[in-house]
Amino acid sequence: MIQILFFFFAAVAVGAAINVLVQKHVLYSALSLILMLTAMSVLFILLRADFLAVIQVIVYAGAIMVLFVFVIMLLNLPEDEDGADRIPLGLFFLFLVGATVWNVEPGSGAQAPFVGSPQAIGQALFTNYVLPFEVTSLLILIALVGAVVFAKKDL
């Protein structure tokens, strides 16, 4: 039963990712991305990575995608004419994913029992990776301010 659910939600994630590329309207593309991120969180649950599933929903499908949808609606972007400029980029990303999967050796992941625990992630995030964490939050803030500035010019 778990394998059937896994393949179903994997197909939903792949279908939603393809829909992100072929959708003509940017808002519908963002909504398809939310569906893909949610399907990925279900896949994490099925793989018993509960922490990653919760973070996927809260951070990506929740906060960041709400920000994307807000900025898209604020800018009132027109419908894309044909969307042909996104297809080569999508094929390139598909090639990168395929090359990555092809070159990964089985069993090459981390073998420590507490590597993915919330305590280990939090400790690594706020000790070894505190500078990249703060730079990323600053870049997100700058992007939000830039989107508001661009939207204000049209008003």
Order of helices and strands: HHHHHH
Considering DSSP H and I runs of 4 or more, what fraction of the residues is helical? over 70%
N-end to C-end Cα span: 54 Å
Rounded average pLDDT? 79
Question: Strand count, sense and closure of the main sheet?
Answer: none
Please report which band the strand proportion falls in: under 5%, 5-15%, 15-25%, 25-35%, 35-45% or over 45%: under 5%
Please mark out the parts with pLDDT under 50 across 5 or more consecutive residues, or reply none: none
With helices defined by DSSP (H or I, 4 residues minimum), what is the helix count? Answer: 6
State the shape. globular
Structural class: mainly alpha
Computed CA radius of gyration, to the nearest angstrom:
18 Å
Let me know the number of strands. Answer: 0
Describe what this molecule looks like in 3D.
The protein is mostly helical and 155 residues long. The protein is 77% helix and 0% strand. It has 6 helices and no strands. The chain has helices at 2-22, 26-46, 50-75, 87-103, 118-127, 130-154. Helix 1 (2-22) runs antiparallel to helix 2 (26-46), helix 2 runs antiparallel to helix 3 (50-75) and helix 3 runs parallel beside helix 6 (130-154).
Give a quick set of tags describing it.
single chain, mainly alpha, 77% helix, 155 residues
Summarize the structure.
The protein is an all-alpha fold and 155 residues long. The protein has 6 helices and no strands.
